[in-house]
Design goal:
Distance between the termini: 60 Å
CATH class: Mainly Alpha
Number of helices: 9
Largest sheet: none
Low-confidence stretches: none
CATH architecture: Orthogonal Bundle
Order of helices and strands: HHHHHHHHH
CATH superfamily: MetI-like
Shape: flat
CATH topology: MetI-like fold
């Protein structure tokens, strides 16, 4: 029986580290997109006219009720059939971003609803309009109050980013699979990939904890 031999990994470190870099790029880019659209979706659901709010609700319902893998296939392989050709990296960022945006929107919506009504009344009393109150008073407080679950969604996004390997993006899992196809040593490379994911996860958690501490100080 053949044992583990991690010496086969050494010639492929550049490939694996490049994959880890693209995993980080995907996570940061899709995370920023999911955060921005999470705010927009939450505000639309709560305050937009029905003609806009109902399509947003329907979109959120569809993205919550279907697998991320199917959504990626529809964006990358489906849209090209109607003349919209999106590069693989952009499709991965959009797919991951929109998928987690609907979960962020649900969290932020709850955070907005939980903001004390007196905050809104106080803002309006000093001359803020509806949208100024949302932008400068309500939404910032909602984001501060929901920072931990939004951070949890970002960590989940990091882990789910491996799915984009199915559309050919050279992230960490895809890089490991390329090395395996040449060496036929799956355990060594999958274990190494798992270790790199763990390191990325620790870095992200440290950054999130630091952000949460800053939020607590700013309250």
């Amino acid at each position: 029986m053949q044992g583990l031999d991690f010496t086969v990994v050494a010639p492929y470190w550049d490939l694996l580290l490049t994959g880890a870099w693209w995993t980080a790029v995907l996570t940061v880019s899709a995370g920023a997109l999911s955060f921005l659209f999470g705010i927009l979706f939450a505000v639309a659901v709560l305050y937009a006219p029905a003609i806009l709010a109902y399509p947003v609700r329907a979109f959120m319902w569809v993205f919550m009720g279907t697998p991320l893998l199917l959504q990626l296939f529809l964006i990358y392989f489906g849209l090209v059939q109607i003349g919209i050709d999106i590069p693989a990296l952009a499709a991965g960022i959009i797919g991951l971003g929109l998928h987690f945006a609907v979960y962020n929107a649900d969290v932020i919506r709850a955070g907005i609803v939980a903001v004390d009504a007196g905050q809104t009344e106080g803002a309006r009393s000093i001359g803020f309009g509806k949208w100024q109150t949302l932008r400068y008073v309500v939404v910032p407080q909602a984001i501060r109050n929901t920072a931990p679950p939004i951070g949890g969604n970002l960590i989940a996004l990091l882990k789910e980013s491996s799915i984009v390997s199915v559309i050919g993006i050279a992230e960490l899992v895809h890089s490991a699979q390329l090395a395996i196809s040449e060496t036929f040593r799956p355990f060594e490379f999958y274990i190494t990939a798992a270790a790199l994911y763990y390191i990325l996860n620790l870095v992200l958690e440290a950054a999130l904890h630091r952000f949460e501490r800053q939020v607590e100080v700013s309250r």
